Amino acid sequence: MILDWHSAYIVSTPLAIRAMELLFALSLGIQTLEYWRMRSATQGRGLWIWSIQRYDIPQPSLRQFLDVLFTPASFSALLALRLLALLSVAIQGGDLWSIGFLFVSNLAILIRWRGAFNGGSDFMTLVVLTGLFIAQLVSHFASPELGWRAGFWYITIQSITSYFMSGSVKLLKREWRDGRAMTIFLNGAIHGPLRTNHWLRKPWVAVISSWSFILWESAAPLALLDARLAMVFCTIAALFHFLVFWYFGLNRFFWAWLATFPAIVWCAGQI
Q: Which of 6, 42, 198, 240 is the most exposed place for a label (fewest CB within 10 A)?
């Protein structure tokens, strides 16, 4: 597990692979179970029936294929196969066929939901899945070392960039700089609106909280300077995503980004 004397914090490649595969299997498994539970809303008189959404597909041949794929029986079978593939990844690790199937099936489900069901978490799920697919493809045709290096760096760059861009956008918004955005968002949370005397309504608390998020997210690239910095960054990020889940009910965000952390720590260790 230890690569050299200066980093008791550097994670070995096999450990990073296993950690990411387990976290990703859990993340995508939760999403798949959510789709399974929502099947009644995608058929009959449900809110998301395919007979309406199919007109988004301009190519007749592709539309006919998806008509078959998204029948209730076929879609249920697709979800069941996804769960079996994820169970295989969790137990014995991924391979080209299981990751390839998950990649293709994920694209199909994104089409079913017009590109995304849950916004950024779907994007980050696709990022991790793409990184895993890159790793398996390159490992198959070249070498595992090169494959996982490419996969880890793809995931890390995308994940770190997502934090950096989020912090940069907040910095440009006046309502984030003066703290108003914190109150606005929390008033719309599942536990909102905030009580009149709630401590988060205090202007100085809101400003400090807002600037803490802005500075932390904007400084995300610095996590790659050292594996220890990466671990601290990922610990804060996990707390941040847990709070987002707690206040807004966005459980997918917690698991989707958590699955990228082994890649971030590994890449920081390589630098």
A: 6
Reduced to 3 states (helix: H, G, I; strand: E, B; else coil), residue 7 is: coil
Mean pLDDT by 10 residues, the chain (271 residues): 47 93 97 93 84 89 93 95 98 96 95 86 96 97 96 98 96 92 80 73 85 95 95 95 88 95 96 81
Q: What is the pLDDT of residue 10?
A: 65
> What are the structure tokens assigned to 65, written together?
């294929």
Query: What's the pLDDT score for residue 9?
Result: 53
Q: From residue 236, how far is each of 14, 181, 208 by CA, in Å?
A: 24, 21, 16
Please give the Cα distance from 191 to 205 (Å, whole number): 19
pLDDT of residue 96: 97
Close Cβ partners of 246 (under 8 Å, ≥ 6 residues apart): none
Q: What is the pLDDT of residue 52?
A: 87
Closest by CA to 265, choosing from 238, 229, 216, is 229
Tokens coding 31? 């999403």
- Rounded Cα distance, 267 and 196, in Å: 45
- Smallest CA-to-CA distance from 186 within 172, 178, 198 is with 198
How does DSSP assign 113-177, residue by residue?
TTT-SSTHHHHHHHHHHHHHHHHHHHHHHS-HHHHHHHHHHHHHHHHHHHHHHHHHHHHH-HHHH
**Measured distance CA(143)–CA(137) in Å, rounded:** 9
| Of the candidates 133, 67, 239, the residue with the CA atom closest to the CA atom of residue 231 | 239
Cβ neighbour number for residue 82 with a 10 Å cutoff: 22
